[in-house]
Design goal:
heterodimer, A: alpha/beta, Alpha-Beta Plaits, five-stranded antiparallel β-sheet, 35% helix, B: 292 residues, mainly alpha
Chain lengths: 330, 292
Amino acid sequence: MTPLFEIESLTHRYGSVLALDDLSLSAEPGAIGLVGQNGAGKSTLIKILLGLVQHTSGTVRVFGSDVGKHGVGLRGRIGYMPEREGVLPGLNGIEYVGLAGELNGMPRKQSLRRAHELLSQLGLEEARYRRLENYSAGMQQRIKLAATLVHDPDLLLLDEPTSGLDPDGRTAMLSLLKSLARRPGKSLVLSTHLLGDIERVCRHAIILEEGAVAASGTLDELLAGQPHAFLLQWKSDNDAISGEFLAALQRSGAEVASGDELGQARVVVSEQWVTQQFFQLAHECGVTLTGLEPEEMDLSTVYRRLVGIDAAAPPLIGLAKGDASGVATS
Amino acid sequence: MSDLSVTDWKERPRAAWLAVWPIAFTALRLVFRRKLFWLLLGFALLNFLLVFGAIYLLATLEAQQPQIGKMLLRMLPELSGTGKTFLNFMLAQGTVTMILLAFAGSVLAGNDHLRGGLTFYLSRRINVLHYTGGKLLAIGLLVSLTTTLPALVLFLEQGMLGDTVEYFSENYNIAIGILGYGGLIAVTLGLLLFALVSWMPRPVPLVMSWACLFVFLPVLSGILRWIFDDRHWRLLNLWRDLYAIGSRCFGEAAVRSSDEAQLPEAAAVVFSVCLVSFIAIVVRIHQLRHQS
């Protein structure tokens, strides 16, 4: 099967600013989440995949074709939904979506017919003749999505599609994206900083940090590759004994992050670790364990720890890089 | 909207250059939705109706009262149906066109640069040339709507009101002149306006720059010519340069003696303006595409 996209040694600079740094990546068709902090290079990567931005160096192929050479043709198979920009004030909904179709090579009649269909399906039937500047934020996101879908693209590149939506609108948009991702032969790349969105829609995730891939793989792999984390609470007579207990944990191979309060720590252990070892070490050091709570590992925890946002989060060890089946880095 | 059931579209897409039409059509649609532009178009139409009526009146008088008609034609030689008639009509229409373009510029293309419309266009199955072509076509059509088209209508009227249809065969060079001058104005103003809009998308700076080019510079050129007594200063007046070249499209007889010597220089100025504008457009779009 032809990979959805293949990227080799991609570097992109905006003047002196390095946006993407020697990035290599390949992805199979499916729903892929692209996550990273502001400035991590998500939007730049999406614009490069679209051929909208000419990269500084490296090779980028989408559907097996070089975006530098076949950008126009490839864009006919891609639908791009930008985060903030992309609405043309003065046009109404139907004109806007119809224009998007015509610009993608559709005859006017067919483009307008599909525009009507899409707007009905996206709940914009009543507002289709209203000017875009009078649309609410949620409606603008939906109309942009309609313009993205009008030419029935094989790949959707969605940049923060839930940005500015209220909770109900966000839920509805995510349900829709999920249904889009399930359609046979169709793929989507969802760029967001909302990890919950990726967990709901995508099966694969790419975590970008400072223009490089910090981790990638299927969500299951990203989470399963993580060691077990526990929140420990104990009682002891003095600080020295607590210190000794923490040292004993570290000597046994656990990674320890002390909590804000005395007698509390987050501990990450390997898969071979047996829970009983906590009690044994506590007994040996003379402390009484009062709490042992396994911490649930979600993408948010993985991400926060990986990009160093939350130092108190349990440290990640052994996070698989470059060996995931769906998305691979090298 | 939790699930989509839209029919697939699997047809072969049309050639990318055909997208030039919807781009131009959309730009014009946005212009025509502004009341101000209808007002300005109304002014352009008034001048047209005035000339249309005058030609009709003169032709009728010439047929029914030949002596009065001839006398009036001697008094108003610019309405005699020669190349000058149409050249001067287009020059007069040009004033309204100038104002129209100054205000229409932001709507035609400026908003694309201000509000991310450029991303909307360039993320589709077209490239920068198609986008630029579409916008230039829109400006060209707008210019033609106020200059070339009414001039052609007047030419038809002039021919049809005459005694014979030979007017058309004898004066085909007038039609060529109208198309030539109209094309020259459309291309030059299109490139210049699009270049200015690309760098100054907001309406106020755009109107001010446009006014500088077509009001301040002609005044300055007149003053400098008077001070230094050098006719070359006249070349600063772009509208005059266009007129000089445009008059040549109507044949040698239509060229004013004062313009004749400066024709090559005027052509060089107009060509330079077009070239610089084109480069400015390409550089700006390249810059915008590479902004994060």
